[in-house]
Design brief:
The complex is a heterodimer of chains A (285) and B (298).
Chain A: H1 2-30, H2 37-54, H3 59-87, H4 92-114, E1 129-131, E2 134-136, H5 138-160, H6 162-172, H7 174-179, H8 184-209, H9 216-219, H10 221-230, H11 236-253, H12 262-276
Antiparallel strand pairs in A: 1-2
Helix pairs in contact in A: 1-5, 1-6, 1-8, 1-10, 1-11, 2-3, 2-4, 2-8, 3-8, 5-6, 5-8, 6-8, 10-11, 10-12, 11-12
Chain B: H1 2-28, H2 36-52, H3 57-79, H4 84-104, H5 106-109, E1 115-116, H6 123-126, H7 131-155, H8 157-167, H9 169-174, H10 179-205, E2 207-208, H11 215-227, H12 233-254, H13 261-282
Helix pairs in contact in B: 1-7, 1-10, 1-11, 1-12, 2-3, 2-4, 2-10, 3-4, 3-10, 7-8, 7-10, 8-10, 11-12, 11-13
Chain lengths: 285, 298
């Protein structure tokens, strides 16, 4: 029983972690809490569904295309909205309210195009296997493997590439980064692409283990923020750990509480962290 | 026709009270409450639940205001020492959690069934036929009272300290003011005002359901406050009238367009989202905004 809950928590936690990495990076580098991040998950999942159905592609190819399309959408959004806001010196508040407006607009545009009903990816139903008394589907194992690979990729990006280093420099000290010759706009666009690409991947995986509906991303915005805050804002590794902790605690809570309340667990964890460890568990950020 | 006018006065008036509470928090104190609707829900539900159990209505409304004020203050205490956007994250989360609890605590709230058949103030005296007209008068009276209170507060030393905290917290603190405590007071009072508007909404609708309190309601209040110019109480009331005018014209136009109900409400929500985006990009100070009162554009 408990092993099963922990296994479910790891699967769900991997998805929250991927989403939280993007949220946390964007928060640190762009300096605002992006309330439209959940809709980027939803968008990624619907892009994958759309490409798989319309272009008649295999599902993995459709997913790659969906991630690329969501990342491209992120860059376009930066050119159309975020950059004009930055260059007009708009306050963080104005940018956050804009992100709320964006979230409402995207969610409802998806309701119009795809209708509010739940949809599924065109994949055969994955049968559960029994491993040490836990019921796990091959699909769930793939989700965990792909999420781990994506996290390793993020690690390689941040630690090994010049762009990753500029991202970290910009997060640590924007002014210093600017005078040392880093092209800030380019790094920011790259951050959006990474953040939204990861969001799309998380959204596709969330759609795989549950189903798609226009509300899916918004419904997990709270665990995402909780994971990002728990890991220390801007700390990609913290966000990974935070996502797993949030995912596992939410699932374990269902042993004691009605499952409807599991999202409240991430709220309580978030409040506790803000009260006692506001810089996150690792103290960084 | 009169019925239509009365219903506009009721909804616009109730939402104006709701938005005035937010204006106190955001316009005066610069606090980012993204879950204002939660406090409206607390007011509505506590008033209805208590009055169904025989508590006098006036006391039930008061209890809702006190509980909402206390809830707002506790969220403020948890986050207001940190960067201002933590309050935004925590309040929006709180409003969603509260809605889940109201939906799932069926033994108390009857979940998505909603509550109805509860007492309304002076219902026996006024009678059913003219009740909405009476309620519209009551809403206008409450609106004027809240407005007068907020105007008096904004001219009081308390209001001046609050605005100085909003504009430059370091200055206020260096003059010996406890900025944290002022902010917590502002959030508590604003939440209590939202609860009052929630009680009035329950009296008007005669039926409450957790889905009356979706997160987007919070952002109706934000649009009202920003349209009228943050920190401007009269502007907030004007913003409420404008937004409600917009809603009733779009509902009217829907009669001519053959959208399904879910598509037409989604289309209206897209417009709301675009209004928020457009306001932030092109007119963050709103229509009546005064430069010196403004903190959003900077």
């Amino acid at each position: 029983m408990m092993e099963q809950l922990i296994a479910n928590g790891i699967i769900y936690g991997c998805i929250i972690a991927l989403a939280a990495i993007g949220l946390s990076l964007a928060y640190r580098i762009l300096n605002f809490a992006n309330f439209a991040h959940g809709e980027f998950l939803t968008l990624g999942a619907y892009f994958a569904l759309f490409f798989a159905a319309i272009l008649n592609l295999g599902f993995p190819a459709a997913c790659f295309l969906a991630i690329a399309a969501t990342a491209a959408f992120g860059v376009a959004l930066d050119l159309l909205a975020w950059r004009p806001m930055r260059s007009s010196g708009a306050s963080r508040t104005a940018i956050m309210i804009l992100s709320i407006g964006l979230s409402i607009a995207i969610r409802n545009a998806l309701i119009i195009f795809f209708r509010p009903d739940a949809l599924r990816f065109p994949l055969p139903v994955s049968r559960g296997m029994s491993i040490y008394g836990m019921s796990i589907t091959p699909l769930q194992i793939e989700v965990v493997l792909i999420a781990s690979a994506a996290m390793l990729l993020v690690h390689a990006l941040l630690s090994r590439t010049a762009l990753g280093k500029s991202m970290r420099a910009l997060a640590d000290n924007p002014d210093l980064a600017r005078i040392s010759g880093i092209n800030v706009d380019r790094v920011i666009r790259f951050t959006w692409a990474v953040s939204m690409g990861l969001a799309a991947l998380a959204g596709i995986m969330y759609g795989l283990i549950t189903h798609l509906n226009p509300n899916m991303g918004w419904s997990i915005i709270l665990p995402m923020f909780a994971a990002a805050i728990l890991g220390g804002i801007g700390n990609a590794y913290g966000a990974m750990a935070g996502g797993l902790i949030i995912g596992i605690s939410q699932e374990i809570s269902t042993a004691f509480l009605p499952a409807e309340y599991k999202i409240a667990v991430s709220f309580l964890i978030m409040i506790a962290v803000l009260l006692f460890r506001p810089r996150g568990l690792t103290g960084g950020g | 026709m009169l019925d239509y006018l009365v219903s506009i006065i009721l909804t616009a008036g109730i939402y104006a009270i709701f938005a005035l509470g937010l204006n106190l928090q955001w316009g005066y104190a610069g606090l980012l409450n993204f879950g204002h609707v939660a406090f409206m829900a607390i007011g509505a539900y506590l008033t209805v639940l208590l009055s169904m159990n025989g508590i006098p209505i006036f006391l039930a409304v008061l209890a809702g205001m006190i509980l909402a004020g206390a809830a707002g203050a506790s969220l403020g205490v948890a986050t207001l020492r940190l960067r201002e956007d933590y309050l935004a994250i925590v309040t929006i989360g709180f409003s969603e959690i509260l809605r889940f609890v109201l939906l799932n605590w069926s033994s108390l709230t009857r979940g998505s069934f909603g509550l109805f058949g509860y007492p309304r103030p002076f219902q026996d005296l006024v009678g059913m036929r003219d009740y909405n007209l009476f309620l519209a008068g009551l809403v206008i009276a409450v609106l004027l009272m809240v407005y007068a209170l907020l105007e008096a507060l904004s001219r009081s030393p308390w209001g001046r300290v609050l605005k100085s905290v909003r504009d430059d917290e370091a200055v206020a603190v260096s003059l010996g003011k406890n900025a944290f405590s002022y902010k917590v007071q502002a959030i508590a009072l604003g939440s209590a005002i939202a609860a009052l508007s929630g009680s009035l909404l329950a009296f008007y609708l005669q039926y409450i359901n957790p889905n009356n309190f979706q997160p987007v309601e919070t952002f109706y209040a934000w649009i009202m406050v920003i349209l009228g110019g943050s920190g401007n109480n009269r502007g907030t009331i004007l913003g409420a009238l404008l937004l409600w005018g917009f809603f009733s014209t779009t509902r009217f136009m829907e009669g001519y367009l053959s959208f399904s109900p879910s598509a037409s409400s989604a289309a209206r929500m897209i417009l709301i989202g675009l209004i928020l985006i457009g306001l932030m990009m092109f007119r963050p100070q709103g229509l009546l905004g005064r430069e010196e009162e403004l903190s959003i554009g900077r």
